[in-house]
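BACKBONE GEOMETRY TOKENS
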Amino acid sequence: MQDGTGAAWQIASDALCAAGQAPFWHAREERLYWIDPPLKRVWRLHLPSGRSERWDLPHPVTGLAPCRSGGLLLLLPDGLYHCGGWMDVPRLLTPLPGRAELQLWRGGRCDPWGRYWLLSQTLPGERAPIGTLYCLRARSEVQPALERVRYGVGDGLDLSCTPDGRSIAWCDGGHNEVVQAALSQPGQWPPELASPMPLARFARPKPSTEPGSAPAHPGRPRCGVFDQQGNYWVALSGSGRLLCLDANGQTLASIATPALRPSGLCFGGIDRCTLFLCTSRAGCSPEELACYPQSGAVFALRLPKPGMPAAPYWD
């Protein structure tokens, strides 16, 4: 196993987010996009110039994806919205089912057939939260269908598709595992998903015994993405580690991250060999911020192998 304790992370954006999430690389624009749901913001960074831009919205954005037309797909509390361009007026594409105050929606990514995957989760209460996986059909009509695919999938953080499009993986932080499920007939509508199976399991978090020290536990899987070879890169929140898993869930590399709370991953750059890491500042203790003062920033790491390009929504 490769140990990347001294990995050369660089700061891509020093704008500190409460929770940077859902990053994607826009190759045509040479820009990195990501969201900050607690602060109701969308960010983008033009890498060649280093210029960052912020878009403030009246409601939290919990999902973001590029569109084939060049626009953006936004997941807002009451529906999926389409924007023709940066800071354009969002227009309702498809309303979300159920009552907004009783559930939390989290965006995933698009698959090779231009469909957008997302998850609805009941809010914590007397019972454990229950997740339901949905898929938004590529736009062949004014209001594309939003199909419920599977009920009871757990946390469902950072959904992403394998390079061959035959299965979907996500981080289930509630059960401390990375889960993968095969598509019965890839590309068909409505999609049919087989029973989810663990790709990797992690030990439950244990509190640190040393004051001010980093917790000595594997952490909670928070975000992940596939590279071009089909390996799954997963970032663990709470321990500040980035793991590369092969198709059998075996760890090929373990790399220390520059913040303890990673919250978003994507590949980008001209050659797609740059791994971008969004991090969170919300919930950090004063001791944690003293050790990791750039928590909330976006970091970049050069890797020898490229990742997958961001699949767009077919609008």
About this structure: The first helix runs from residue 286 to 291. The chain has one domain: 2-198+219-302. The radius of gyration is 18 Å.
